[in-house]
Amino acid sequence: MSNEKKEPDLMEKIVSLCKRRGFIFQSSEIYGGLNSCWDYGPLGSELKRNVKDAWWNAVVRAREDVVGIDASILMHPRVWEASGHVAGFTDPLVDCKQCKKRFRADHIGVATSGPPRPPRKEGEGEAPAEPSASEPLAAPAPKRCPECGGELTEARQFNLMFKTFMGPVEESASVVFMRPETAQGIFVNFENVQTSARLKIPFGIAQIGKSFRNEITPGNFIFRTREFEQMEIEFFCKPGTDEQWFEHWKAERLQWYIDLGIRREKLRMRPHAADELAHYAKACVDVEYEFPFGWSELEGVANRADFDLKRHQEYSGKSLEYFDDATREHYIPYVIEPSAGADRSILTFLVDAYEEVQTEKETERFLRLHPKLAPIKVGILPLVNKAGMPELARQVFDGLRKRLACYYDTAGAIGRRYRRQDEIGTPFCCTIDGQSLEDKTVTVRHRDSREQPRVAIPDLGAFLAEKIENAKSNRV
To answer: Is 377:405 a contact under the CB 8 Å cutoff?
Structure first.
């Protein structure tokens, strides 16, 4: 959109910091890298685990009406026929005859024809268009490459699912797909979970797992990748109560980001227009964030009605009706789906937390991550590397590290060590100084407020745990 504020330099700074400090690396970098594939380093893997734990705690452990599963990545091929992915999970693809680059036709203004189909959603909760991919597409207009001005090929539909083979022989009968979403693993297990856990409508099933999409134009670092992790809930409810639950989950999911420190003014709720809805959706709202490259989807909350369970009932021949003991009714539940991407959430937390402060001497960089998300909770720093301070600091470190993620650092002046911890988002630093040797107290430096209370070493673990657990924002 023309009114979007874009900050490409900020993305470059985030990518640079992620590599330099061990958050995220290019996959297979020593071989030149693999496009749109990323590896999480020591700090990144801790951050990712914390984000997933925060989501799981909020939607499963804090509620009585949601349980979790972990479904297989490989599923029966008929699952993807029933869901519409085999026939309709496509994007229009064009190639440049001169520079050989590929583009999504709809992203560069190339016109296509054929039966109208709802657009594929951009976010990680996206789903297939109505099956119609076998229809031909018209020649593109314009016919010029946006990179080199060369002629483009005619647009053709490109299925985004990764194929593989199960068994020793590569033949059509053994074709299976890497799942393009986690949702279908929940739908096909609806009856198993409901009966084994003795659940009554309304209830939800949550899952965190890898999904794979052979995107034509991935990009913006970890915003759009070919391998990613989803955090999804399918919340099953009685038809007629779905709009109430839709509003409930919209509010819940927006608040989750705010509670973890995302600035409210950088978030918005964007309802889908009628001609934008996926074929299965009765309604859909995107939680959007103002990224450096503009407003884009962070999470989708959709009212999927009864589309999925009806399709799997039809294709499998198994009844997926729910029997309501109270009303003596049989019905197919409606489904509300909040669908977020773990990787996209991580990018949002990094972007929103990044801050630069210019001093007389240098530019200081901060990651003002919420304490619950910070990969390192506390840095343990002896003031000087002598006079018994390192030995006491080691005792403090050993006493805390089984309880909290700690980092022990003696290299360089204390100010430089503080700045290293600020840059990776560590909310607290414990400094062991001369007074510590006398009275067994340490200075606890707060990353953002710069307050430095003294805390007795025996009380330190409880003090830090309380501060982290009860933090109301990322400003500690």
So the answer is: yes
